[in-house]
Design a protein that fits this description.
globular; Purple Acid Phosphatase, chain A, domain 2; 7 helices; binds fe (ii) ion; alpha/beta
Length: about 270
């Protein structure tokens, strides 16, 4: 009965050698109410959960950055978990992200693993590479008279969110995009006036079996928004599977994703 064993070995080799590096550049149109005219077709490339670590080397991070740069977006957003838990990976990861370049900038938030590692060191390392970290802060993207607000929160699971600061003086009539490592904030009343939340954290389940979904989904309620587009009221949420791995260096049924989001006016 050698066949099943060969089958298992084949699947595990695929999960550890092929799928983790088989990048998927997803393209999703997102329709937003009251999107100003000059932001029609505005393209955002999102990288998330890079997790530079012993199991994910710096060459792979550089590879992800080069692929992302080829998408030529109007703006890059990075939604956290640059490393997994060791400080020595922070600086090289930030340096590898430095080539990212877009007309409307590169904006970042921190994830739960950045808190395990060192949130201050991570913030400083990113800022040294001209990546703006929205730690409970916001900015306005301006195109002539048109604007879109971009806000970012620190990691929700670490109780690091300061909603009043993140949303201070935002214009309720202008669409707001929120960067939040954790997708679960879609359920909170604080996000009900946000047009679009961009999140990661789930790794798309990282290991997902056909028909039953990802075992991790049953273990943690917090990743019920596992990947793709969700909606609650007028608020939409896009969850990217991200590119890195934690724990075992495997991915199965959850290809690493570089997400390209194109904003469209809802008519
Ligand atoms: Fe995370």
């Amino acid at each position: 009965m050698a066949t099943p064993l060969v089958g298992v070995a084949g699947v595990s080799a695929y999960a550890s050698l092929v799928e983790p590096y088989s990048y998927w550049i997803s393209e999703t149109d997102i329709f937003i109410r009251d999107l100003p005219e000059r932001f029609e077709n505005f393209r955002i490339t999102q990288l998330t959960d890079i997790h530079h670590s012993r199991i994910l080397g710096i060459e792979e991070v550089r590879n992800v950055v080069a692929l992302a740069q080829q998408t030529k977006p109007d703006m890059f957003v990075l939604t956290g978990d640059y490393t997994t838990n060791y400080r020595r990976f922070i600086e090289p990861c930030a340096e590898a992200l430095a080539p990212l370049n877009a007309p409307e900038g590169v904006w970042a938030v921190l994830g739960n693993h950045d808190h395990y590692t060192d949130p201050e060191l991570t913030t400083r390392a990113l800022e040294r590479q001209h990546i703006a970290v929205l730690n409970n802060a916001h900015t306005t993207l301006q195109r002539g008279p048109d604007s879109v607000q971009l806000s970012g929160i620190d990691d929700w699971s670490w109780n690091a969110v300061d909603w009043p600061r993140a949303f201070a003086d935002l214009n309720p009539k202008t669409p707001t995009i929120l960067l939040s490592h954790q997708p679960t904030v879609l359920d909170l009343e604080q996000t009900q006036n946000v047009s679009l939340i961009l999140s990661g954290h789930t790794h798309g389940g990282q290991v997902r079996f056909p028909f039953v979904g990802a075992p991790a989904l049953y273990a943690a309620n917090e990743i019920k928004y596992d990947r793709g587009l969700f909606r609650r009221g007028a608020t939409q949420l896009y969850v990217s599977s991200g590119t890195g791995m934690i724990g075992l260096p495997v991915r199965l049924g959850a290809r690493p994703e570089i997400a390209v989001l194109r904003l469209k006016r809802e008519i």
